[in-house]
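Technical appendix A lists one of the benchmark inputs used to test multi-chain prediction within the project. The record comprises two sequence entries:
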Amino acid sequence: MAQMETAESGGGRKKHEKVRAKKMSTRVDLTAMVDLAFLLITFFMLTTTLSQPQTMEINMPLKPDNEDKPPEVKQSKVLTLLLAADDRVFYYHGLPEDGMTVDYTNFSAKGVRTILLDKKAEVEAEHGKDETLVLIKASDESKYKNFVDILDEMSITGIQRYAIMDILPLEVEMIQSAVIEK
Amino acid sequence: MGKGSGSKESLWVDMTAMCDVAFLLLTFFILTSKFKVEQPVEVFTPSSVSEVKLPETDIMMITVSDDGRIFFDIDGQFKRMDLINKIDEKYSLNLTDQEKTAFSLGSSFGVPIGSMKQYLSLPVDQRKSVRMSGIPSDSTNNELSEWILYGRMTNPKIRIAIKADKDASYPVVGKVIKTLQERNINKFNLITDMEIRPEI
């Protein structure tokens, strides 16, 4: 570069000096600016929420009119799950009866999931696909976590038809007598 | 001399590229971020395998704490202003403009409508430390139902999300769901954490 400039005529030296002066002035120390930028990045990273929360969408049935009869379902297609205290799920098939004994299980993969899958396979063999109806009734002692867990199991086992219902007094009694027995 | 100038040059690191990167990242964070809003209670949501994300805007959030208190939140400063104006009119709370502004800038709250004026007249720092009793949602005095009604009036396309603590007892959540159903809202979201879908 210097050689090229010496090859030029008298004005070259002036130009050369000018260029050098300019070169010095363009070198700005950016260290402080980088420091500042990273400081701001850190601030934004710490104060913000990047991820949006996950959600589970629920569609409840329309409020029934008093004149509407509830749809009738074959007993053999129905499984009722009763959510009780201490993460227990009581279950029975068909309609509730007096003096009926209910079994209980838990929320693990070997617990309620196997029961749901068994029921699903059973109904599928007998009545066809997606005919299983699960009634979910949460008792007053159950936690919200149990409720979400059971809805989750519906999604995992692929049961399309389920209903969230209020627990009947008879079913509360059934849970109580089953707890005493155990 | 050549040696000296060489060592001097090696000390000078060119920061331009680093500066570019830093500002690029900074821009990214500024544009993509949403500030954390301070919540009156800490809520640990249960986990689920659902992978649906909650939309960022038009959300009405009903929070249920582990001790069963209910909180209400709606997004958007102008919608909140609209909401408090409507509530003020309905319940003749005689709120001042300052108190209304305080409401519009706030977040989740859980005070009965009766003590709303008192709550809003507190200075900001005191408002954060006050323990809120939760919104009444009994069948005799269902203020939650009112908030939902007016909340939907201010923004018809609002979506309703329930954010409940995993240890909240089910009856409280059931009460919220029942309130929603009474208002003919049959579609709502439950906020959960992520969990890996197990193989079956």
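The CA atoms of residues 93 and 166 of chain A lie 17 Å apart. The two ends of chain A are 95 Å apart (CA to CA). Comparable benchmark entries are summarised in Table A2.
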